[in-house]
Amino acid sequence: MTSPPVVAVDVGGTKIRAGSVIDGVVDHLREVPTPAAAGARAILGTIAEVARRVIRDTEVSTPDASTPTWRIGIGSAGVIDPDTGTVVSATDSLAGWAGTALTAEITARLGAETRAVNDVHAHALGEALAGAACGTQSSLLVAAGTGIGGGFIAENRLLTGRHAAAGHIGHLPVAAAQGLPCPCGGMGHLEAIASGPAVLSAYHRAVGDQGPGGPRVSTTRELAELADSGEAPAQRAFEQAGRALGSALGGVANVLSPEVVVIGGGLSGAGELWWVPLREAFETELIPAVRGLSLRPAQLGQDAALIGAASLWSSGRVSTDETTMTSSGELQ
Fold it and tell me: What transmembrane ranges does the database entry give (predicted)?
């Protein structure tokens, strides 16, 4: 063992996923439902319990090894201040999560030092370290699913911004979403037209009770099956979402000029009905200086957030100014 063992935890609105990360290898995975409606105390208790299980599983599998000093790395939904480990703000999908002293609470429960970032920021770190953006110095990771989030790495540094809120791509105003309510309480944001729930809403607005899926279609997976079968309103819903996202990302790429844009999240598995208009709209918006910019699917799936969360302990500390990443995949 050449690096300290880390329990990496990915905290989402529906599930909490954890595993041990030792020398870059993710193992002893555990997944449990998030007690999202039960409040912060219940969520913290579940994080601590699943982390204990991972530690136990790992130590049982290596009985001859000396007991290591464990550390905890967390990628969590919400705006997470990486300096204080506090949840600055969060949506109602995690009741009472805003204001939680996340790292201090987990350290108190486990007796292990803890660091945390936003879950999409953790995804961005993971893909940059070992996935689709590996080998680059700058990348933009976009997670398109229930929401639309982003993580930007520039000159090997994760940029979280003054308020730890950098990357909220889903809240860019876009013309295609004019008049549509966004989950944040605003109107006309990208997330209102291009997220998974928005795709479903667009389909139901189009067909009402008349389409073959009608209001019975309740997931993007079911809607994708309808689209694949040739149902035109389902196809248009995915095309509209892909085009809106691609256009917005082209504009973001003009501003940030990364080496690569990586797309992950549940919608990235929607197929060519989504990817083709996304790529077309993206390329249309690029200014000449950045034309040819690579747009790639993410490679690591759910493990990206775990690898990224574990990397918070590779070396040094995470902050808006000091987080850098070496070519060997370590933060310094």
Answer: none
